[in-house]
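Hello, quick one for you while I still have it in my head. A protein chain has come my way and I'm curious about its shape. I'm sending you its amino acid sequence along with the backbone structure tokens. I'd be grateful if you could look everything over and explain what you see. Here's the protein in full, and shout if anything looks odd to you:
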Amino acid sequence: MVRLEGGLTLAMFKSVMEKQICPWANEHLGKSWYLWMDSAGNAHGRDPSKPGGKAVRKIVHRLTGGRAEILEPPSYSPDLNVIENFFGQFKPRVHTLLARSHGWKILQ
């Protein structure tokens, strides 16, 4: 894992890929591997100095010789968010308990 402070520019992305990710992946992951990237196709897509879209894909393809495939997380979905699921179940219970403790009618 690589931690970066501040915004990620295309030059920083290329440097991290060349110096850290690709050497490690080539040594430990074999012929093909996956690179998980949030918003690889969308992040800063309009600013050519920021990583995103075609530029990222070209860099990854060139540096890995086509061995790495970029995986992107699915679009935001409450179904995949543990916190959203928790509060989705927790909140109605709290409301029910509050209603009962204050003698309120519970509308269904």
User: Anything to note?
Assistant: The CA atoms of residues 15 and 97 lie 55 Å apart. The first strand starts at residue 33 and ends at 36. The mean pLDDT is 75.
